[in-house]
Design a protein that fits this description.
globular; 6-PGluconate_DH-like_C_sf; 8-stranded mixed β-sheet; oxidoreductase; 49% helix; cytoplasm; alpha/beta; glycerol-3-phosphate dehydrogenase [NAD(P)+] activity; two-stranded antiparallel ribbon; 13 helices; nucleotide-binding
């Protein structure tokens, strides 16, 4: 394949560019800031995220959507909150047969639409969704990583797998788009829950009981929205849930720890708080609409949204573990 585009030059977008550049002639990495694009093209380094990592020479930074016109595949590596605006901006300059790939693990609130649902409003439903236990900081170094992708269009999924696959980056195709996307949302709530517990210094026995409870409830939630229970056992399910619930590299886990320690978080300065709150409110509403009782969702909702003291919220959770 000649050209692949990536919208979003953050940690994940840059890491994906580094991987994909090994398989295609040119990777166009779109960003809004002209000075960052000039710096990347001049020095071959994204100083904002990976100041010590030399990028592949065929990665071209751009601030113009016109450079993406000839790209057969475009990855959307942007926050869920920016999805709708970005899609409206590229609607007129992207060919109908271009494959769009979503990497965001978020949900639009209050519409309760996944990123795939939002893409389908502007383009066809042949998009591909990517999710897995993936930290961008490891991906950019070409360390061993596995991810899942899913699409209603099997040919599109195969093409995306081809541009992503390297000896170190493995890709497994699933046929459950709904399950894959919802797993990415629910795991963030589990990560916050386990972060809260760690911030409170809850003992490890109890924390892993909470993690187990979260895994079981994820299966119920996925089935209730039309996904496959087996998806929860995949890399995008179990793998991602455990990784983000236990690693200090996880932003959602860190967010939970701060709340568990009763530390006031500056919401305006932290995009992750905004994303996390949307996911919590959306998942709470989804559970109510599908008549699913999730103690983990309720626990996180109580602490983050209702501002109930963590110890009181945990006592309620533990009574129903």
């Amino acid at each position: 394949m000649d050209k692949v585009g990536i919208i979003g030059a953050g940690s994940l977008g840059t890491a994906l560019a580094q991987i994909i550049a090994q398989n295609v002639d040119e990777v166009y990495l779109y960003m809004r800031r002209e000075e960052l694009a000039e710096s990347i093209n001049r020095d071959g380094i994204n100083n904002e995220y990976y100041p010590n990592t030399k990028l592949e020479e065929n990665i071209i930074a751009t601030t113009s959507y016109d450079d993406l016109k000839d790209c057969k595949i475009i990855f959307l590596s942007i926050p869920s909150s920016a999805f709708r605006l970005t899609l409206s901006e590229i609607e007129d300059c992207v060919d109908e047969d271009t494959i769009l790939v979503s990497t965001a693990k978020g949900i639009e609130y209050p519409s309760l639409k996944t990123m795939g649902n939002v893409i389908s409003e502007y383009f066809d439903d042949g998009h591909v969704s990517l999710s897995g236990p993936n930290f961008a900081s490891e991906m950019v170094l070409n360390l061993e990583t596995v991810s899942n992708i899913a699409s209603k269009n099997k040919e599109n999924a195969i093409k995306v797998k081809e541009v992503l696959s390297t000896p170190h980056f493995k890709v497994k195709i699933l046929d459950d788009v709904v399950g894959l996307e919802i797993c990415g949302i629910v795991k963030n709530i589990n990560a916050i829950a386990n972060g809260i517990c760690e911030g409170m210094n809850i003992n490890e026995n109890a924390r892993y009981a909470v993690l187990t409870k979260g895994f079981k409830e994820t299966i119920k939630i996925i089935e209730s929205v039309g996904g496959n229970a087996s998806t929860v056992g995949e890399y995008c399910g179990f793998g991602d849930l455990v990784l983000t619930s236990t690693s200090n590299e996880s932003r959602n886990h860190t967010l939970g720890m701060l709340y568990g320690q009763r530390i006031i978080v500056d919401e305006k300065a932290s995009g992750i708080v905004f994303e996390g709150k949307n996911s919590i409110m959306a998942m709470k509403e989804i559970c109510e609409k599908t008549n699913i009782k999730s103690e983990i969702v309720d626990f996180v909702y109580d602490v983050i949204i209702k501002q109930i003291p963590p110890k009181i919220a945990f006592k309620k959770l533990w009574e129903n573990i």
